[in-house]
Amino acid sequence: MRQYAGNRIGLAVVGGLLLLAGAYAWLRGRGKLPGLPPRSKVLPDRTAEAIAGQPWALWLVALVMMLLALVTLRWLLICLGWGRRGVRSGTGTAMLCVGLKDVEGLTGAVVRVVGDQARLRVAVTCPSSADVGAMAGKLDRDIVGRIRREICDDEIGTIVRLHVRR
Fold first, then answer.
1. Where are the domains of the chain?
2. In 81-161, which ranges are continuous DSSP H helix?
3. Phi, psi for residue 158 in degrees, rounded to 5
4. b/e for 113-139, b at 16 or more Cβ within 10 A?
5. Where does residue 113 fall: left (phi above 0), alpha (psi -120 to 50 degrees), or beta otherwise?
6. Which of 71, 91, 156, 166 is nearest to 125 (CA)?
7. pTM assigned to the model
8. What's the confidence (pLDDT) of residue 3?
9. What CATH code would you report for 87-165?
10. Low-confidence residues of the chain, pLDDT below 50?
């Protein structure tokens, strides 16, 4: 399974553009841009008058920008992996993928080791066309036991999450 770097690249590009726009607005507001008079207008007269006549419009813009910043921050934290529990196990993930090699369209398989007691979390994502009952039986009978024996101990607790995509 490959990691999607597009989220990180997209966040970096959008963040850089917003940073440049904010620096430009700050410098323009302070009158520190060369080649522009300190009191030059940013908005046309008609737009400035319309905004001055409706003071709630600026509050609405501020609220929308704050919500956009919070959504972007959440996106960044999820992309960085914060909030996820445990450490990925490459060996366990490889064993899981080998055990489920006959499943067509398997889109995600991850094994994580969580906590000091070394519990396992197994996550599998498959299409709706897959035989979920057979897959759950195979996970229960063979695959999870082998992963537990290989990674830690055969008696550790394991949570298996099977997600079916439409």
1. 6-80, 87-165
2. 90-99, 132-138, 144-151
3. -135, 135
4. bbeeeebbbbbbbbeeebeeeebeebb
5. beta
6. 166
7. 0.52
8. 54
9. 3.30.300.20
10. 1-2
